[in-house]
Amino acid sequence: MFKIVFLFSISFFVYTIEAACPNGMIPILNETKCLYQSPDYQDADQAILICQQIGGQNAGLAKIDNSFENGFAWQLIRNLAPFLIGVKQTANGVWTQWDGKPLTYTNWAPGEPNSIVGCAAIDSSNGQWKAVNCYFRNSYFCTV
């Protein structure tokens, strides 16, 4: 009896997360986030606007808060192109979440961030982060 109730509870929880994702977004399993993988290339500012059009005012470039989320995103883009994530460099050189909150997780590649270019992307070849220019057009991830 316990197994049946437990399985029902898990499937109900996953269904609830999926139902809460805006159209076209993918639920991140065991998380309360939805991820959108862009089919196009935009600079960071335009990507944020598109994220908000898709997921509302609270949406933005993807906040990657742990290794599971990073791995989940990387598996979607493996061997494609770098994808912008919600990490930026502030005017005083500190790297933060796009909304200005401190980073609680990082996955910088060795030697990264290597310059003052302002944004970060997941490298599709290894899942590690690298610094990229915010004004260059890249693929991107959104979260809501």
TrEMBL record:
Top-rank taxon: Eukaryota
Keywords, ordered alphabetically: Signal
PROSITE patterns per record: C_TYPE_LECTIN_2
Entries under InterPro entries matching the protein: C-type_lectin-like, C-type_lectin-like/link_sf, C-type_lectin/snaclec_domain, CTDL_fold
Entry annotated with the keyword Signal: yes
UniProt keyword Repeat, yes or no: no
Pfam families according to UniProt: Lectin_C (PF00059)
Protein name: C-type lectin domain-containing protein
Biological source species: Mesorhabditis belari
